[in-house]
User: Fold these one by one.
Assistant:
Number 1:
Amino acid sequence: MTAISRVVAREIIDSRGNPTVEVDVELKDGSLGRAAVPSGASTGAREAVELRDGDPARFHGKGVRRAVDAVNESIADAVAGLDAEDQATVDGAMIELDGTAAKARLGANALLGVSLATAKAAAAAHRLPLYRYVGGVDARLLPVPMMNIVNGGAHADNPLDFQEFMIAPIGAASFAEAVRMGSEVFHTLRNSLRAAGHSVNVGDEGGFAPDLRTADEALEFVVRAIEETGYKPGTDITVVMDPATSEFFRDGVYDYTGEGVRRTPAEHADYLAGLVERHPVASIEDPMAEDDHAGWRELTARLGDRCQLTGDDVFCTNEALLRAGIRDGIANSILVKVNQIGTLTETLATIATAHRAGYTVVMSHRSGETEDTTIADLAVATGCGQIKTGSLSRADRTAKYNQLVRIEEELGTQARYAGREVLGLRR
Ligand SMILES: C=C(OP(=O)(O)O)C(=O)O
Ligand SMILES: [Mg+2]
């Protein structure tokens, strides 16, 4: 009854106004799963390939008709009749059909839409919420939300070199309380930025994008907003950064163009260590660039016992890249973005490998998102304990937080909030 009977893809629009892929998978019993595919701006070089049309006549060349056609004209036939419950076989059939290492022929955006929609259809057939279908009886840990309240880098039109400044309410009693605390700080920050004469327009992920030049300035605003709201920085609410350094690592140096300073890898590492000394920063994502493996190794040895160091571009949710990183002493945490690898099966394998090695896992959105809330369920399903999905504004971001509020309510007394157990204990 859970055999796949129909697969249909279409081109829809994402939160940046760019086209993306949405897929419906229908099963023989009539159950339906639907998934929309996100898209990054500061992408890792080793991500699976997002197929774009390149035809300037359509959506300024950003159309995804080729990926949509790949689903409708070839993947649909390849997975028809397969059991949606057998996720590994469905994903394996698509990987084989594509035949390339980076999913470049059919597109990782085509594969991911089918992969996630298949899981959702199977969950629907069992009348189970997605988090329960994927995670089983132990799926009851609500993640700490990392809420991105100051945007910079590739996600905003301001001078900030660092891409993301986030708050994580580790001291909350529940996920719902964490979201409430975050929204309070968000509004305090809005008032204080405005009072200081800054714009309160928002960037791609819904955080403010003020004309600040340095990470210290941004962190001071964020920490002050936590205090002024009545919370203790580092204890109630801790701070997380994603400098997304691959974006400004050029010719062997970290080129802070907004700040107007070039730092060698050693100077850049000193600078990060100083930020961790001066501010309650519990986690840094991509502190070193994807190609600066020596820098990554040195920083992990230097800061890894005090700070979560999360690999995004350096791992690309790719199990083989993660294994190499574990072997080489790179990072102590991995960011997981489903579209970096392109199937649910591979995503779950990467997470399992990280957990076995004692690496923490942060489930993540992309800067281009839709109303799809799959990652909220996957965060609970995998018990990873941390999610970053933007700010407390923009429906493409709040959709995920609101889905987690619903999941927490549904779990009732079974629900546990990850809190300080997963983040902030190292300091
Ligand atoms: C979410 C991120 O941005 P993007 O989706 O643009 O890669 C990130 O770098 O972690
Ligand atoms: Mg990142």
Number 2:
Amino acid sequence: MSFEKATEVRLKLNTGADFPALGLGTANRADPPKTKEAVIAAVEAGYRHIDTAWRYGSEGYIGEALKDLFARGVVTREELFITTKVWPTHWDIPKQSFEESLRRLGVDYVDLLLQHWPLAFKKVYEENGDLVQLPVDENGEYLFDENGHYLQGYKNIEDLYLEDKGKRIRAIGVSNYAIPYLEELLKVARVVPAVDQIELHPHLPQKDIVNYAESKGILITAYSPLGANGAPNLKIPLVQEAVKKYNVTPNEVLISYHIRQGRSVIPRSINTERIRNSIRLVPLTEEELEAFDNFGKENPARHIRDKWGANIPGFEYWTG
Ligand SMILES: NC(=O)C1=CN([C@@H]2O[C@H](COP(=O)(O)OP(=O)(O)OC[C@H]3O[C@@H](n4cnc5c(N)ncnc54)[C@H](O)[C@@H]3O)[C@@H](O)[C@H]2O)C=CC1
Ligand SMILES: O=C1O[C@H](CO)[C@@H](O)[C@@H]1O
């Protein structure tokens, strides 16, 4: 059986820009330097989309990889799609966050800038002057900025984008927004987010959010498609059945589940062999896609259960 390449599928953002459906996730927080080799392997294998954030500590290593790839003529900046994000510590200073990301990445624009979480953290500083990513009090409770609000955080990114006129920030979007927050946002937004990046996989199909976002022209990017650390989704029986039927890797089944439904997906790996073996688009049938969604309704599991999200609609039953 011959397969289309997932790396060649392009979606369209509401800005009109092409959006490569398959991206490389880079939340390599345990070993950020490994990101350089992973990005080089991914781009050489045909990936054209890289997902990062200040939170991951990987932007500088992506910058090193890009320098190498550009110098060798493997790819040009214009052929790549780079997403980075504004962490809740920077909710009122997205320009600073964006400029620092650009510097670390060594590029002069990003294709997509996302509000990482609909939250605002208090500013607490490390001895070296850097902002503490996860500020907590003496009892370990997260410190939220009482003057901050998720809608204001988006508005600040929107202001930056409108001021920039789309030159250095080609599109903006959100992450970790479920329907109630999307509804509130759309009442006031001057720029409809191009993307909502959410956890999505056969254990968590979240069809309600997907359908709502898509009805508003917001594309979905699926994060943690393999189930995050340890990749537990690889063991789902339906995934294993598809692996045997199509003679593909479980990674390819899990990414194809999204791309076949018009969504973008950003699996993470630092294993260059696995990166290269994750690019075929498996022609999962309508029945198979429906079976995956039904499996999720009966076996829901959220793998990213960050406690700071406890008060965000959609996350409250899952944190802890
Ligand atoms: N916007 C947000 O709040 C979030 C965004 N993300 C983004 O999404 C990306 C993907 O999500 P992740 O949570 O990183 O998890 P993921 O679902 O992509 O899984 C990554 C894990 O699977 C392992 N893995 C990959 N292939 C494997 C294989 N064949 N066998 C065994 N293990 C395998 C990797 O080593 C890694 O530990 C992130 O890297 C990041 O870019 C992730 C979490 C939250
Ligand atoms: O983007 C993110 O990645 C981590 C988990 O890997 C999560 O805390 C954050 O939202």
